[in-house]
Amino acid sequence: MSNEKEISTKVPNLRFPEFSDVWRGVELGDFLINKQRKVQKPNTLYKAVGIRSHFKGTFQKMDSDPKNISMTELFKVQENDFIVNITFAWEGALAIARQTDDGGLVSHRFPTYEFEEKVSSHRFFRYVFPTMRMKYNLGNISPGGAGRNRVLNKKDLLKLKILLPEIQEQQKIAEFLTKADNWLANLKNQKQELENYKKGVMKIVFSNKSNTNNWTTHLIGEIISVSNKKYNPKTDKGNYPDIEMESLEKNTGKLIKTFDSKSLKSIKNFFNEGDVLFGKLRPYLRKYYLSKMSGVCSTEIWVLSSNLLQNNFLYYLVQSGNFNRYTQQSSGSKMPRAEWSYIAQQSIDIPDRSKQQKIAAFLTSIDKLIESKQNQVSEAEKWNKGLLQQMFV
After folding, report:
1. Widest pairwise Cα distance in the chain
2. CB-based contacts of 212: which residues, under 8 Å, 6+ apart?
3. Other CB atoms within 10 A of residue 291 CB
């Protein structure tokens, strides 16, 4: 279906009571004004602006080398410009320039547009363009094969139509949604502050403790064991949950599903409730999980336990810099793996069990606050998404 047939006159399901006019189809060219601010290529390192695909916004490369580009001219970006990457527009590489983009440079493949504020503005349009319909239409006007052969037709871009209300309603919607965005950003900032606080606490707790009371030095291999108990689908029977490790610096284990023993074909590692799982593959990703049940996991995951350490304390110990600095001694270049034979010979400081309990309890309380804040973020994101669906057509 063409863009012309899709766009007519409609009204959203949710709107402010003072507005009742229908939303009408308007071409992008009615309010996007091409603005190419040509400058000579710099002689020194400069700030280059790029656009992520899938409507993920802009990014900057602050130290771009002019020697690496053949163009003699570039184009300056200003805050609130609408920028298009004509090479990957079909993949949603469009964005509104942020304050940090101001003064950055782009090539001729990144046309920039200012807004005719009497028709529409960046404050409203930023909520309109990142849609599946827009991505579909961009694909239709980007002829050619895949990747760099699909170049956007800029004239056709300005002929695309979207539904817009009158400017007063746009301003009201943009003001309201900006407040909602700020609310969500504030929640995310609060979560980030808690995560930063946890990192700071852990750095203090697990550093230079050998000179304080109740902390003793041990070889890691003497206090932490790696289980070698395997699950063989050819000989073992039963249903077992399987853990997949994600690449995040926090509680990152994810229970994905329960496998029937008949569906498992590869050897797995057994783990018990209370064991700590640590991903040895690409250890710089810092993947760890405190198991809450028994099950099986990939053989690329260590199953750790200890007779001298409480489970919760061991979970936080493997997150610490004192432990992770040893995991960086790994084998393999493209797919590095941490080496337990090396780690086991390294020393680490641990407190007595009463101190372990206090440390683990305090860090667990921080994790619960982080989890609670993440739940608030998730709910706010869901609310914002529903709001957008109701307020636009």
Report:
1. 77
2. none
3. 21
205-239 pLDDT, tens digit per residue, is 988 654 566 789 999 999 999 998 998 888 887 77
**Tell me: the pLDDT tens digits for 126-155?**
999 998 889 999 999 999 876 667 899 999
Looking from the CA of 7 toward its CB, the CA atoms found within 13 Å total: 20
List the structure tokens of 53.
Answer: 């695909």
User: pLDDT, tens digit, for every residue of 181-197?
Assistant: 999 999 999 999 999 99
Chain centroid offset of residue 365 CA? 25
What span, in angstroms and rounded, lies between the C-alpha atoms of 351 and 297? 30
For the segment 14-52, what is each residue's pLDDT rounded down to a tens digit? 999 999 999 999 999 999 999 999 999 999 999 999 999
In angstroms, the CA 84 to CA 81 distance is 10
CA angle in degrees (0–180, nearest 5) for 27-32-34:
130
- Of all helices (H) and strands (E), which one includes residue 327? helix 321-327
For tokens 């399901």, the residue is: 13
The string of pLDDT tens digits covering residues 320-379 is 988 989 998 877 777 889 999 999 999 999 999 999 999 999 999 999 999 999 999 999
For every residue of 40-63, DSSP letters joined together read EPPSS-EEEEEE-TTT--EEEEEE
Q: How many CB atoms lie within 10 A of CB 305?
A: 16
**What is the residue whose two structure tokens read 């007595």?**
352
